[in-house]
Amino acid sequence: LPPFTLRKLAGCTLFITGASRGIGKAIALKAARDGANIVIAAKTAEPHPTLPGTIYTAAAEIEAAGGKALPCVVNVREEQQIIKAVEKAVKTFGGIDILVNNASAISLTGTLETDTKKVNLMMDVNVRGTYLTSKTCLPHLRKSRNPHILNLSPPMNLNPMWFKNHCAYTISKYGMSMCVLGMAEEFRGEVAVNALWPKTAIHTAAMDMLGGSGIEKQCRKTDILADAAYCILTKPKSFTGNFIIDEVLLREEGVKDFDVYAIAPGKTDLEEKKLSGSQHEGAKDNAESAPAKSSPVAETFRVIQGAMSEEFVKSTQGVYQFELSGDGGGTWYIDLKTKGGGAGFGQPPVTADVVMSMSSDDFVKMFTGKLKPTLAFMSGKLKIKGNMALAIKLEKMLTQLNSKL
């Protein structure tokens, strides 16, 4: 950890809505590295069928990063749940210094295509939830040395083009921005209130659901918003009423390289490897460099290949690439997209939806049921790039496979 003087959020208590995954969690982890206390106010207590993470897995990651975590089940549509979580936070950590209103519902649909249930959800979570959470935290924020409210919402631009394709969603997000406008003025000199919005799409599980596979290529990592949020939350409370775009702020702060935030920077990982002359050198891409047939990794893939079925392929519809280090390592793949499927050594026949990097040993443990993928991912043994929803599908498939391995 950096010297104490640089840990600007050490000992601060952050109340973050929707912090079990995505942007909320990224902001939480950034503050946790300073030694902050994080209240994870989110509604996922049980694992979600398609989205990664619960308040408890987020809590484990926050503690591992150096923070203190308080997971609270909060659906911001329920005022009582907000009040209870705020009381618990104050009792546990002695106060609240920062509120991040990140929880949001999204439906990018036209007026006639948006069912009333969705309209209610967006208005309830985005506008009303933000308003009530701010209201409940404000008495405690006023007692803090350097209190901040940060809403993840856009600058208000009344150009009709921002409304015409998804009127209800824009109204609900602008509602959050109006909270910034009003509360910044109302609590000027007492509590800083600002809005933060990304310049480009940000890659989260929600984004995968909206955009489908391939969307991540046009996205940036959640880190860019975490870095921008950190920047805002460490400013004095006189910095208030601002509508901030992540890249604009970070440029002002002296950041020059924005490629680090790209999901798909100038070059893909594979090209990088080819250039650095590692195992992907042209000549070695043929079968000669395939690991000895007897290695545990090769054995595991042989079994996977044998267990392939139309059923697996139909229900998964994904291509997985494994970058394995150590014995029997190299590039391997499981294709559960093309007819009949396939698995083996080398590049997959089509571009992979998910790339997983880990050691050969951990890979074999994972496929024989000795290591849970979620645990491997959380402890940093497994790195995942690409479509998270598909990565989760693989876990389901593993449970079916384990009986055969």
Automatic annotation (TrEMBL):
Region (Disordered), start-end ranges: 272-294
Origin: domain of life: Eukaryota
GO MF terms held by the record: oxidoreductase activity
GO cellular component, one term: peroxisome
Start and end residues of each SCP2 domain: 310-398
InterPro entries: HSDL2, NAD(P)-bd_dom_sf, SCP2_sterol-bd_dom, SCP2_sterol-bd_dom_sf, SDR_fam
Keywords, comma-separated and alphabetical: Mitochondrion, NADP, Oxidoreductase, Peroxisome
Pfam family membership, one: adh_short
Subcellular location: Mitochondrion; Peroxisome
Record Gene3D superfamilies: NAD(P)-binding Rossmann-like Domain, SCP2 sterol-binding domain
Biased composition regions of type Basic and acidic residues, renumbered to the chain: 272-287
PANTHER family: HYDROXYSTEROID DEHYDROGENASE-LIKE PROTEIN 2 (PTHR42808)
Family that this chain belongs to: Belongs to the short-chain dehydrogenases/reductases (SDR) family.
Listed name of the protein: Hydroxysteroid dehydrogenase-like protein 2
